[in-house]
Design goal:
The chain has helices at about 65-70, 95-100, 195-205, 225-245, 255-260, 270-285; strands at about 20-25, 25-30, 45-50, 50-55, 75-80, 105, 135-140, 145, 150-155, 165-170, 175-180, 215, 250-255, 290, 300-305. With about 300 residues, it is of the alpha/beta class.
């Protein structure tokens, strides 16, 4: 595969909920039964190491999934719990796993938005964020946590959320990338929780690293990770070009752009697509390429500057 080829999304992920699968030596995964247009077949939790292990992303508030995870590590000791970010399909089950194991929780910090909410924005109660989460240990970019036979490095990857971390295992060239990179689909970047400016910077950060096998929060593992990231960067730039192409025809609003750009989209994803367009527009307004009256918001109209 050359870097100029499109990397196809891979939607082949036969893993069944509740089953523990060793995907590589020292890495097991368990799928939660929470499928949706946003989560694909469900959230994937990872078990790192053997004997004394870490769990990455305990998943949503789901007793059956917690039981499946604890069953998978029966006879072992859970020494660490890591959380990539605070969406409700990733962090709420942390409390159950911590209570059962006593393991400390490592993450960037509590949930926060990528920018302050504008006065003109209505609060979206279905933003799907876990405001109750707080880690025992706050990790910053470059912090390293070592366990029994494994070593994870925190990689700041804001964009999907402001507090998103990936966890790299440099010696194995593995990276647990949460929802920042997914093999089955693009990630949702929805302001004010998410930021396209941050998201693109974080993709560049991953592309510059050595890890080439990615384990994602949803869907199958991603081989040739850096090439896949470069594909995502080109994909987002093409999306930006589509927005500018539509704006070249005159001032318009976000629903019109979504209809022009996302042909044949699942109707359940139309709102998310609108927020993704807004994330691009925020970036374009910040760069002085696109203009709007007032703050760049979901209900605004946009034109070339």
């Amino acid at each position: 595969m050359s870097d100029n080829d499109d990397v196809p999304f891979n939607r082949n992920f036969p893993l069944k909920p509740g089953i523990v699968e060793e995907v590589r030596p020292g890495v097991r995964r368990v799928l939660c039964n929470n499928p949706s247009p946003f989560t694909f077949t469900g959230t994937v939790s990872y078990i790192v190491g053997e004997g004394n292990v870490a769990i990455i992303d305990p998943g949503p508030d789901d007793e059956a999934h917690a039981a499946a995870l604890l069953d998978a590590v029966r006879g072992e000791t859970v020494s660490h719990i890591f959380v990539t970010h605070t969406h409700r399909d990733h962090s709420p089950n942390t409390a159950r796993i911590k209570q059962a194991t006593g393991a400390p929780v490592y993450a960037e910090g509590p949930h926060r938005a990528s920018r302050p909410r504008f006065e003109s924005e209505k609060h979206n109660p279905e933003s799907g964020v876990d405001r109750d989460f707080a880690p025992d240990v706050n990790l910053a970019h470059g912090d390293v946590v070592e366990g029994d036979g494994w070593r994870l490095e925190a990689v700041a990857t804001p964009g999907h959320t402001a507090n998103h971390l990936a966890f790299a295992w440099p010696e194995r060239k593995f990276n647990f990338v949460g929802d920042h990179v997914m093999g089955w689909s693009t990630s949702i970047v929805a302001p004010p929780d998410g930021s396209m400016i941050d998201y693109m910077d974080s993709l560049e950060r991953l592309a510059a690293r050595e890890e080439d096998l990615y384990f994602s929060g949803h869907g199958p593992e991603i081989p040739e990770g850096q090439r896949f990231v470069r594909f995502l960067i080109r994909h987002r730039k093409a999306r930006e070009a589509s927005i500018l192409h539509r704006l070249a025809k005159g001032e318009t609003d976000i629903p019109t752009m979504v209809r022009a750009i996302y042909i044949g989209i699942d109707p359940r994803l139309t709102t998310a697509a609108g927020y993704s367009v807004l994330a691009h527009l925020e970036d374009l307004v910040a760069r002085g390429v696109v203009a709007t009256d007032g703050d760049p918001v979901i209900g605004g109209t946009y034109r070339l500057a």
